[in-house]
Amino acid sequence: MGVPFSFKIRKKYRALRFSEQKVADILLKGGYNPGELTIEFLANEAKVSQPTVIRFAQAMGLGGFRELKTALIAEEALQGGKNPGGGEKISYDVTPEDKLVDVPLKVISTNIRQLENTLKNLSVYELMRAVQALAGAKRVLLAAAENSCAVAEDMATKLIYMGIDAVFYQDVYRQSVFACNLEEGDVAVGISYTGVSESTVNAVRIAKEAGAATIVITNYENVLINRYADILLCSGNEPFLYQNAIFSRCSQLAIVDMIYTGLLVLDYGRFSLNLETRSMIPDLFVKEEEN
Question: Do 87 and 31 meet the contact criterion of CB atoms below 8 Å apart?
């Protein structure tokens, strides 16, 4: 099966013009019958001109509206009649009528939607800046609280394995204290889905005031923690239920994996050697015990 057309839209979303993004928003929202879709309807719904709809199709690598309609019909057929945009069909609203047998579909579908939203909203330019900053950092502080702690722990572990001096403390007070000791050449990474976690915001603010570069991983563009971000990795602006606790990790962990992979691509020789060296540590322990 090929790549779904809706996935291609999300992948190219940030490269589209604003007017073309309005067309993409209508298609991703769903709620229409692709077989009955007309260029007039799509232009009116998106509040753009018909030539803009054609330019959107061309930006997606298609010849025009007819090919766009064909791609939408093909995706509907592959999905068994579901709207290509997905709409609310993959939301995580739980009702008393739900059955246990439906849980896997609900959870996996919501994770997919979260990841697609991240792909649509994340700035590749900001990701590149984050990778470059971490690659040249003397020290890295991870700041997070509550549900984001698991993500911070994962990122710290990955960076340490790559030979980057990274620390993460579960104690939020120690995070702020360590932030005071940072200086120019160091990096602080604040991870907060909502962007308003007081302890994480304070740690990032203190780190910035101390002279360190700051990277923020959050879900929203206009939140408190972003005031202190030199580099912003925003996973999207769509809230996910139930509430944020379950699915916030999905996009955050994906961004951490992007950073990890980006570091390898940036300097494969250096980081692959560090990973290989550190992967030998368990073998050394075994040999010492045998002796």
Answer: yes
Find the DSSP H helices in 145-218.
149-161, 172-180, 198-210
pLDDT tens digits, one per residue of 190-241 = 999 888 899 999 999 999 999 999 999 998 877 899 999 999 998 876 554 4
Helix axes 50-59, 65-78, angle to 10 degrees: 60
Contact in structure between 172 and 146 (CB atoms under 8 Å): no
Q: In what order do the strands lie in the sheet with 213-218?
A: 166-168, 140-144, 187-191, 213-218, 231-234
Any idea which residue has 């408190």 for tokens?
Answer: 224
Q: Which residues contact 106 (CB under 8 A, 6 or more apart)?
A: 92, 94, 98
Strand segments (E) across the chain: 140-144, 166-168, 187-191, 213-218, 231-234
Q: How far apart are CA 9 and CA 27, in angstroms?
A: 9
CA-CA distance, 175 to 203, in Å (whole number)? 6
Q: Which residues are CB-contacts of 235 (< 8 A; sequence separation ≥ 6)?
A: 114, 117, 118, 121, 122, 217, 218, 219, 251, 252, 254, 255
d(CA 210, CA 214): 11
Q: Which has the closest alpha carbon to 249: 73, 115, 89?
A: 115
The DSSP output letter for 57 is H
Q: What is the pLDDT of residues 126-180, one digit of tens each?
A: 999 999 999 999 999 999 998 899 999 999 999 999 999 999 999 999 999 999 9
Whole-model pTM?
Answer: 0.66
Which residues on adjacent β-strands are paired with residue 184? 186
CA-CA distance, 59 to 40, in Å (whole number)? 19
Token output for 245: 């606790």
